[in-house]
Amino acid sequence: MRVLIYSPVRLFGECLAAFLASAEQIDAVAPEHEVDDLDIKAMEFGADVVLFDVTAPESWAAAGLVKALCPDTATVAVAVTEVADEVLACADNGFDAYVPRTAQTGEMLEILRRAQLGETVCDPRIARTLFNELARRHTATEHAEDLHLTPREIQIARLLGRGAANKEIAAELHLSVATIKNHVHSVLRKLEVGSRAQVAGLLRENPLALRMR
């Protein structure tokens, strides 16, 4: 198994790489500390798995870029707090698996092995939450349709609810900032609010809306 590690914290990335290099099932491992062109680096390295330190905000968008260029490469979030919202965020952002903050080294190796096989290790309580979320999203989608929001506007409304700036939304959705500005204006008009902060407040009152896609 060939593993690429992304963390802007050099010490963390290199220590994790040193451990993985000693594991029998790991054929090659490389730490990366710069997010620029990480997708190209993953392709050139021939990574089977890319580990992302998700305490770094840029990891979320970078994982999507890696997946787009290398669809057969498993993307795994590291240092995830095993609570429903954070695990759901991993799923929403296209991660194939996650390593909880509480995981031991042997557990991490098993998670990587399964991720390479297309499998995910998940706490049963979190799995139940994921199934419940599917049901909630069905209701949320119906609500969005009542507001006549398009699928793209639903995505942008969700990101506005997280407090994302136009530039961040553009990077995540691979659109121009000008296009995002137009969508934001449309969302504000349809939700009948006057500011981005009001969108965030409205969505906080209705947590389902934060998860609409």
UniProtKB/TrEMBL annotation:
Q: Which GO terms describe its molecular function?
A: DNA binding
List keywords of the entry alphabetically. Answer: DNA-binding
Keyword DNA-binding tagged: yes
Pfam family, any one: GerE
Q: Which residues form the HTH luxR-type domain?
A: 142-207
Please indicate if the UniProt record lists DNA-binding as a keyword: yes
Q: Which domain of life is it from?
A: Bacteria
| GO BP term, pick one | regulation of DNA-templated transcription
Q: Which PANTHER family would you find in this protein's record?
A: TWO-COMPONENT RESPONSE REGULATOR (PTHR43214)
Q: What is this protein called?
A: LuxR family two component transcriptional regulator
Q: What is the lineage of its organism?
A: Bacteria, Bacillati, Actinomycetota, Actinomycetes, Micrococcales
